[in-house]
Design brief:
Helix content is about 50%, strand content about 20%. With about 800 residues, the chain is α+β, with helices and mostly antiparallel strands. The longest helix has about 70 residues.
Length: about 800
């Protein structure tokens, strides 16, 4: 039987296991080679004759996560694979704030310089430890300093960390650095003392930069105090905050301005940044007028301000490295928001916004480089400063443009107020002229024999005319206050008599409503004081009149005393038992045209201007006007005014209650026939003789005549041929040239403005009467002028 055999195609199990062993050995050998090649070698940095050497791209870094590694530990073989090459221009650990080690080797064998200085150009390193590795003994500490250590630990008194070393052949150095997150650490080697020159140039450039910022702060503070625009205040705060932040980042704040015994923490920079961003937000809001131009940007910036508050809370609750990761995008978002708001304002027609947008674009570019730690041709700190410098220059143009707009707006406002004042003055003049005829003739008529019915008609006409005159006076007063033309004149006044006169003036009005009107004067109040008597009387008259108007039964009391808390303040109190005022009405009653009860207003009469004018007058006199009231129980208005003691005026004492002066011969220069009849009728009813002339030229001729025997001249200001001013000047010149006694001249005009009064006095007139003519004032002026 033939058997067939086949060759064996597969080896046995023993043979197969040997193959797998050989493959495993080969794989392990390959892995060993790869691991061996993965360990970075420390490059040897050759130091040349005189050039500065940037060591940043040629160092190795090792993270010390535990913070406990010693220089001996990191040189052990188990850490050899953990060293990482640093290929950037500056040492950059990103947002990691754990301590780390730096290793590098220097060789100065080919250089004539053996003494070198290592310069760490970051002044905010918390801890800096430098070791030199010696072959036999290992690492040895040669330098120890840092922001959290005393400034005396630094070998060189400089904001940067400067480490002197001696380098001959290849030498290994180790550095242990502990710093804040996102910090760039430039590291350079300088031959001998050659580092001083570039560092000094950098210091000079920095202080020039701070000088520009300081000038901008002072300039904008001055502008704020001048134009009172808060945009300049917030811009000054923004620039101040940014300047202080740069002082800190450059190390000057910790080196020169920080108390020696206190540790300077990096968190202070965050607090400064929070305040700076907040100021910048308010600057943008006010400068671009976002309340009117863009509500969306307005609320976005308010949200950014709120975000700064939240960031401040987070700063004290979370780790600093995590906070920086959160806050850096916030700053980038803020700068984008500022640019967006500027573009919107530019498109809306605000031309100053074009400078604003360009300024913030440059500022954002420079500071984005700083925040992101990018290494451009310029250092991040320098890029930030150049961006800020460009922004300051461009915003100065924008702010100057805004000043021009403000001045133009102020000029338009001034012209508008001026035109309004002139219009009101002219209208007042045109109304007063016929009103003088109405009131004057009714005054003359009231002095004739009338029956009861006729006198009632005359009283109605006089009351209506007086109300119309009060309205005209209120409108003129408020227009003068708005235009800033209300003038004040302090003079000696018998304040006791002033109160008594107010009581007498309104006594008949109070008795007509069966009210008791009394005056109460504290005996400690001096009789004669320095006050603006005219405006005090105006305020008192308004308040007493209102008290009577809104009181149906009971009493009204005018009290004068010294403020018990301020002995240099006079206190006038007007108390009534009237309708009272609610708390809501008390808040609004000093506003223009406000009133407690419109229905009651229509019944009682009034313009709604009186309290607003009184409040403005009191404030302009340096005092205050306040109200306290309970509805249904009455009200109390309190006026407090500063005063000075004064001497009694004998002339005022004689004429405190002037009586009618009979027998005067009065020359009247008036071109209006109705006004001639009015003034003639009033004077003749008062017992005086009247000589009428129709213009200033005739009055001058009468004065120059040899038979002139008049005692006083009443001169209208606006007349044909020769007006009252020119006529007065001609008469005064004639009197001086002929050595004649000065004739009393009293202006008669329908203008009630202070400018007109001043013009009359400058022309040589002695006093001033406004139309419609009040008989009581006419008697008083005649008495005063004829006795001078």
């Amino acid at each position: 039987m033939v058997s067939l055999s086949y060759p064996q195609r597969f080896p046995g199990r023993g043979h197969r296991s040997g193959v797998w062993r050989r493959l495993l050995v080969l794989w392990l050998a390959t892995l060993t080679v790869l691991v061996t090649h993965a360990e970075p070698t420390v490059p040897l940095i050759e130091l040349t004759q005189s050039d500065v050497e940037n060591l940043g791209p040629q160092v190795l870094l090792l993270a010390d996560d535990s913070g406990r590694l010693s220089p001996f530990d990191i040189l052990q073989p188990e850490y050899a694979s953990q060293w990482k090459a640093q290929n950037e221009q500056s040492i950059n650990r990103g947002y990691d704030d754990t301590p780390f080690w730096v290793q590098f080797r220097l060789n100065a064998a080919q250089s004539i310089h053996k003494e070198w200085h290592l310069v760490l150009s970051n002044p905010l390193l918390d801890y800096v430890d430098v070791y030199q590795v010696f072959g036999n003994s290992g690492p040895r500490l040669i330098y120890r300093s840092g922001l959290h250590r005393p400034n005396q630990s630094r070998i060189e008194d400089h904001r940067f960390f400067i480490i002197p070393v001696e380098v001959y052949g290849p030498t290994t150095y180790l550095m242990r650095l502990e710093t804040s997150p996102s910090a760039l650490v430039p590291l350079h080697a300088y031959p001998s003392d050659e580092f001083w020159s570039p560092l000094l140039k950098a210091d000079i450039g920095n202080w020039l930069f701070y000088g520009v910022l300081l000038a901008m702060v002072l300039y904008n503070t001055f502008l704020y105090t001048t134009v009172r625009d808060v945009s300049y205040l917030f811009y000054g705060l923004f620039i101040s905050g940014f300047g202080v932040l740069q002082l800190s980042l450059d190390g000057y704040l910790a080196q020169y301005l920080w108390p020696p015994g206190l540790i300077y923490h990096y968190q202070y920079n965050i607090w400064i940044t929070l305040a700076t961003v907040t100021s910048a937000c308010f600057f943008i809001i006010h400068f671009l007028n976002l309340r009117q131009t863009s509500r969306a940007h307005l609320w976005a910036l308010y949200g950014m301000v709120a975000l700064q508050v939240i960031a401040g809370i987070l700063l004290v609750t979370i780790e600093l490295d995590w906070f920086v990761r959160f806050y850096t995008p916030t700053i980038l978002l803020f700068m984008a928001l500022a640019i967006s708001a500027g573009i919107h304002a530019w498109r809306a027609g605000f031309m100053a916004a074009k400078f604003f947008v360009l300024a913030w674009v440059l500022f954002a570019l420079g500071n984005a480089v700083f925040l992101l730690g990018v290494e451009p041709p310029l250092s991040p700190n320098l890029a930030s400063k150049l961006g800020a410098f460009a922004e300051a220059m461009l915003l100065s143009f924008a702010l100057a443009y805004r000043i021009r707009l403000l001045r133009e707006e102020q000029e338009r406002q001034r012209m508008r107020v001026e035109a309004q004042s002139q219009f009101l003055a002219q209208i007042s003049h045109e109304i007063r002229t016929p009103l003088n005829g109405v009131l004057g003739m009714t005054e003359v008529l009231s002095r004739t024999h009338l029956d009861n019915e006729q006198r009632s008609y005359v009283d109605t006409i006089q009351g209506s005319g007086s109300s119309l005159l009060a309205l005209i006076n209120d409108i003129l007063d408020y227009s003068k206050i708005e235009a800033g033309k209300m003038s004040f004149r302090r003079e000696p006044v018998d304040v006791h008599q002033l109160v008594e006169q107010q009581v007498k003036l309104f006594l008949s009005q109070a008795e007509h409503k069966s009210l008791s009107l009394t005056g109460d004067i504290d005996p400690t109040v001096p009789a004669w004081v320095m006050l603006d008597a005219q405006h005090v009387r105006q305020v008192m008259s308004n308040l007493v009149s209102n008290a009577i108007k809104y009181t149906d039964e009971g009493k009204v009391t005018l009290t004068l005393c010294i403020d018990p808390k301020a002995p240099r303040l006079l206190e006038f109190r007007i108390e009534d038992s009237g309708i009272g005022i609610s708390e809501i009405d008390q808040k609004n009653m000093f506003n223009l045209y406000s009133d407690v009860d419109p229905g009651r207003q229509r019944k009682a009469g009034g313009t709604g201007l009186g309290l607003a004018i009184s409040r403005e007058l009191v404030v302009l006199m340096g005092g205050s006007l306040i109200v306290s009231s309970v509805p249904g129980q009455g009200s109390c208005f309190t006026v407090k005014l500063p005063f000075l003691h004064a001497r009694r005026r004998s002339e005022e004492a004689r004429l405190a209650d002037p009586k009618s002066q009979n027998g005067f011969r009065v020359l009247v220069a008036e071109d209006n026939m109705v006004n001639q009849r009015v003034i003639q009728g009033l004077l003749e009813k008062l017992g005086h003789q009247v000589v009428l002339t129709s213009h200033g030229g005739e009055a001058v001729e009468v004065r120059q005549s040899e038979t002139f025997d008049c005692d006083v001249l009443l001169m209208d200001c606006e007349m044909p041929h020769l007006d009252g001013y020119q006529a007065t000047e001609a008469i005064r010149a004639y009197e001086r040239s002929h050595n004649l006694p000065r004739l009393p001249i009293v202006a008669l005009t329908a203008h009630a403005l202070e400018d007109v009064r001043r013009h009359c006095l400058d022309a040589g007139m002695d006093d001033f009467l406004t139309k419609p003519i009040n008989t009581r004032y006419l008697e008083r002026v005649l008495a005063l002028t004829t006795r001078r």
